[in-house]
Each structure stands twice: as structure tokens, then as C-alpha cells.
Amino acid sequence: MPFTSLNPSTNQLIQTYASWDSSHLEQALEKTHRAQQAWAQTSFTQRAEVLRNAAMQLHARRDQYAILITQEMGKPLREARAEVEKCTSVCDYYAQHGEEFMRTEPVVTEAGNSYIAYHPLGVVLAVMPWNFPFWQAFRAAAPALMAGNALLLKHAPNVPQCALAIEAIFRDCGLPDGVFTNLMIEVEQVAEAIASPHVHAVTLTGSEAAGRKVAACAGQHLKKCVLELGGSDPFIVLHDADMELTVDMAIASRFMNCGQSCIAAKRFIVVPQIADEFLRELKARVDALKVGDPMDDATQIGPMARLDLRDTLHMQVSDSIAQGAVAVTGCNPVEREGFFYQPSILDRVTADTRAWHEELFGPVAIIIRAASEADALRIANETRFGLGSSIWSKDTARAEKLAANIQAGSTFINGMVKSDPRLPFGGVKASGYGRELSKLGMHEFVNAKTVWIR
Fold first, then answer.
1. Model confidence over 382-402: pLDDT tens digits?
2. Helix, strand, coil percentages for the chain (3-state, nearest 5)
């Protein structure tokens, strides 16, 4: 079955690519294994130079890569440019700090000398999604490569051009052949790759269902695994929130990338004192969002990435309305070529609706009216997910106390949830386990080896 690159704005075919058979896959795995053994012997200076070269190439060809992202998955071009620039930051960050993160740590014991040494695990398989096709790949690759690992990229089937472009970037920036390899394999072949003795660990960003399958397979073969899965991030608005700032960030957090982000604000949980005001201000801003051609810099909402994703979203919205939620604005597909959906708001969402329990991966904001601040906390935690969260209040000390009780991998106070190379990123509960980014993310795929000398 070929990989298909389809423009979601026009529903027109761009390019198709043949998938590999098992023999081709095995040859690639063997080659990467051999390449990693040599790469692990290189100096941190050499590895940092490769990452800096990658950052420079990303910056120099930003517009070229941004157009590729927009054409393949529909992200507005101005957001695609920002995504490419963010990739430069993660390359530069690990080029600067990677050697420090891998430094041997002395430990005082009864031995004459004892310490923890950090060594690469080997070959890491990265199963990556389409919604941030460059960023997701680079945030996995930069720390893994700097640690001395090799990386195999199994990208989403609808962004093959992005995957091939990323492979070309690493080839052009001086990375030895085979240390970064794009696998043109079907989803069904991921298990075959994980089972290979040439693969030593796996990281996946994607759906909860995909995460469960990969985790089961990795566990069966005793492979280290990091999972960043879905989210239903609470956006808690307290009575003393700065309303202008809060609504500005609500729009950015919910509707960036057409709402197709794991850490987008998914549930706006508002206390009664400000619920009507927040909804009124939010609706005004949502109705003003410009839907259109993502290649136009004035466009704020482009298409969804695939038709099946739009159909699923509309079914979730329609079912929630039938179950008692109130359609405030939007809540229908856009009647035009491509996979567009109206920027939407659902109010009065309760536990009787699908929108309460499921992740809505698209441009739909849901409003949940809490009875009190304590009730808002209860609602925030009443989900199987636990990725990001945010609290909006002028009383940051009180918000910080509330944050301590939210079950999530991160809580942002008066700020939009985002990933940052300097901070660990990941979730709890059904949002996955393990961490990406920062020193912690780099150490996920190293052998922390004890050395004891009499």
C-alpha cells in the first residue's frame, strides 16, 4: 500500500510513495545498528556540530520546509514557519547542553571511587504523528543523537514528504549515513521493527490506542518505551482572572493548528462568577477567526489534516448536542473544498456528553460550568488523561496551591501550555509515561551505569 501525500486544503493528490517490504526494513535496521556503534564513539564536539549544522539549515530553508508542512497537513503557513524555527531551538539546546547532561556523576560510597556513567542505549525507534511533523521528529532526534544513539523515524503515513525532508536535513548536515533513517513502513510493520534485536528502545507520540499497542509490543520484547499520548487539558478560569489575557490565550491554546494538538486547551472549566462574561468574550473572538487557505498569512484556521478526522470530530459534536450540550457557534463542517471545520463552541457540557469524556481533536472549545473553585479542581481531574493543564487567576499563590492537586504532567499559571527544550514534557494516566526534552528526556534513552572501584 503506497504512502499518500494529499493536500487537505484542496483534497488533491501531491505524491505517492511505495512502502518497504520486510527485507528492505531488515536491511535498514542492520545498517542503522552498525552506524550507531560507530556514532557512539564520536566526541560530543562532533555530535554538537551536526546538530548546529541542522539548526542552521532549518533556519536558512525555513520557508521551504514551512510550505511543505502546510501543503501536507494543512497548518497555516505562519504557524508552520514557527514550527520550523522551534526545531532550530531544540538542536541548539542539546548541542549546547548535551555533553553536560551526559557527564559522569561521582557518588560517595565506601569504594575508592564510584560514579554513574551515562552511555547510549543504541537504536531508538520514534513513531511520530502528523500534527507537528517537523517538531515532533526533531524533539525526539536531537537528544537521542546527542547522547550517541541512532534514530529510526516511523512517521505518520500522511506526511511522507516531511519525513523524507527531515532525513535529508540530517544527511546534509554531516550526520553519518544510517544514524538517522526514515522508515517507509506500514503501521502493521512497527511491531516487526520493535521486535528486531537491532532496536533497543521506542518512543511514540500519538493516540491512546496506538500507545497501548506499542507499549504492549515493547513490553513483550523488553524494550524501553516512552509514550506521549492524548490529552483533555483543563483550562481553569477563576473569578479574578485577567479576562483579556485569559481570552487571548484561550483562543491561541484551543485553535492553534486548527485545534489539532495534544496539549491544546480542551476543556474550559469556569467558575460561576465569570462564566457568562468568559463565554461572551470567547464567542466574539471565535466568530472573528478567519478560516481559509492556509498559504495565506491572514488565515487563522486552516483545514483539518484528514477527512476521517473531520468526520469523527463532527460526530462527537453532534452526539454531544443530542446529549444536552448547547451549540453556541459553529459546530458544522465548512461547505468548501478541503477538510475544513467551523471554529466552534459547545456550552453546558456535562458528564452525560461525549465531549466530557473524549478528546476533541479539532477547532471546538467546550465550556464546563463549575459550581465552585473546588468543583473546578474535581472536574479537571475527572478524566482518564493527564497531559497539560492551566490555571488563570491574578492570585498566583492561590493558583499554585491549586496546581499542586492537578493530575497532569504540567500546569501553567497564566500561560499557555507548551513544550520547551529546557523543561521536561510528558503526561500521567492515559496520557502516557516517560519524559521528553530537558535533561530528563535525554536520560530516558541512556544506560545509567554504576561503576564501583575498590
1. 999 999 999 999 999 999 999
2. 45, 20, 35
